[in-house]
Structure formats: C-alpha cells, structure tokens
From TrEMBL:
The keyword Ribonucleoprotein does not apply. The keyword Nucleus applies. Belongs to the krueppel C2H2-type zinc-finger protein family. It is found in: Nucleus. This is C2H2-type domain-containing protein. GO terms for molecular function: DNA-binding transcription factor activity, RNA polymerase II-specific; zinc ion binding. PROSITE patterns: ZINC_FINGER_C2H2_1 (PS00028), ZINC_FINGER_C2H2_2 (PS50157). Residues 1-25 are annotated as: Disordered. One of its GO terms (cellular component) is nucleus. InterPro entries: Znf_C2H2_sf (IPR036236), Znf_C2H2_type (IPR013087).
Length: 140
C-alpha cells in the first residue's frame, strides 16, 4: 500500500484497515454467508435484512395502526401511503387500500377464499405472506 511504502502506517495497521473495510462490504470474493440457510450476500446490510425475513423480526411499528415492519424504509412507505389516501374501499367493512390488488386480497378475508396452498401439508391461506411464514414451520 502507498501508506505503508511511505512509512505512514505499518503493514499490520494497513491490514487492520483492510479487514474493517471487508467486514462492512464484500470485495467480490468475500461474501457474507447466513449460516442458517447458506445464502450469501455482498453486503452486511443485505445479510441483516435477510435474517429478519427468516426470523420474522419486525422491530419498526407504525404508531397509528400498530402494523410492524422488518425495515425502517417499509414503515416510511407505509406512513406515506396512509397519509396520501387510499382510494380503494371495501364495501363490507371500513378497510381502504392504495392499490386495487390489495383490496382484492382483502376481500378474500370476507369470502373465505384461500388460494395459497402449502406444498408440504396442503394447508391453505388467503394471503401469500401467511403461507410464507407457515412454510418456515416445515423448513426450520
């Protein structure tokens, strides 16, 4: 390194700095691996986000409706959506949605429709995220 060559830092100090950089970001060769499922990521933040998905951790809560999110950015989007209005209203209850597809998914709670089926045990769900959470009970 130029800093070592010029005598500003020792070879060990240079290596320590390089190791700290690698611990924050992969270098193309070094990847962050999640020991649970062996998924690999270039960035520590990507690994952290993935772990939250696997554990179901949702530390960010909307103070208005109490809905929880795994990422702060998702909570932020949720707040924007809630303050800018929801044009799609359920005619059977007070629920309102920003997207027509969200209203369609909500309507299944009234009709009892459950189109998402677990491939392991055939249990059915009305919403895909519930199925995803359920599948973790089979896969660990």
């Amino acid at each position: 390194s130029p800093l070592v060559d010029q005598g500003f830092v020792s070879p060990q100090e240079s290596q320590d700095v390089q190791n700290k950089k690698l611990s924050k970001k992969g270098n193309g060769k070094t990847k962050f691996e999640y020991e649970f499922c062996k998924s690999k990521f270039n960035y520590r933040t990507s690994l952290t986000a993935h772990k939250k998905i696997n554990t179901g951790e949702k530390p960010f809560e909307c103070e208005i409706c109490k809905k929880k999110f795994s990422e702060k950015s998702n909570l932020h989007v949720h707040k924007i959506i809630n303050t800018e209005g929801k044009p799609f209203e359920c005619k059977l209850c007070d629920a309102k949605y920003m997207y027509r597809s969200s209203l369609r998914a909500h309507k299944m709670t009234h009709t009892g429709e459950k189109p998402f089926e677990c491939s392991f045990c055939k249990t059915k769900f009305s919403d895909k995220s519930a199925l995803t959470t359920h599948i973790r009970t089979h896969t660990g």
